[in-house]
């Protein structure tokens, strides 16, 4: 027996699982739901000054009305790069330009596109579940490495703690997915 009692860093495991939830929220924000949102442009990067730059760092993103997003591009020479980045992003939006302002009219989603977006949301959720289960696996591996340093009861206690955290975060992922799919399918 070792002199020190094994203590699993459950705070670290929970922080990593929260990171998976945070990444999922970011991915969900990028999915169009038929309503304009500045967050839908967050994953888009623009080729600006020889580097990949987030779109919100080359212009001001606004949502002046429920079905319109505008980008007031600060440098006139980047307007075409912003348009190109939006068209290549897979959002399915055709930008319209008026000087340095790029307007993105958000079309109404049809039933087929809504179903496609719910499948994409489900894929994002599955990636988050996999990330949470990976953190669970790491926690269980730590317990296995120290099994000689603890009793079977302690092993069971720590395994239950890790499993409890995993169940909590998988449940949160499922909840977020259900909410997002409801939002997408809402007409």
Automatic annotation (TrEMBL):
UniProt subcellular location: Cytoplasm
One cellular-component annotation, GO: cytosol
Keywords attached to this entry: Cytoplasm, Protein biosynthesis
Domain of life: Bacteria
Keyword Protein biosynthesis: yes
GO MF annotation, one: ribosomal large subunit binding
InterPro entries attached to this UniProt entry: Ribosome_recyc_fac, Ribosome_recyc_fac_dom, RRF_sf
Primary localisation category: cytoplasm
Keyword field contains Membrane: no
Occurrences of domain Ribosome recycling factor (ranges): 24-185
Record GO biological process: cytoplasmic translational termination
PANTHER family to which the protein is assigned, alphabetical: MITOCHONDRIAL RIBOSOME RECYCLING FACTOR PSEUDO 1, RIBOSOME RECYCLING FACTOR
Functional summary from the UniProt entry: Responsible for the release of ribosomes from messenger RNA at the termination of protein biosynthesis. May increase the efficiency of translation by recycling ribosomes from one round of translation to another.
Record-stated family: Belongs to the RRF family.
The name this protein goes by in its record: Ribosome-recycling factor
Organism per entry: Marimonas arenosa
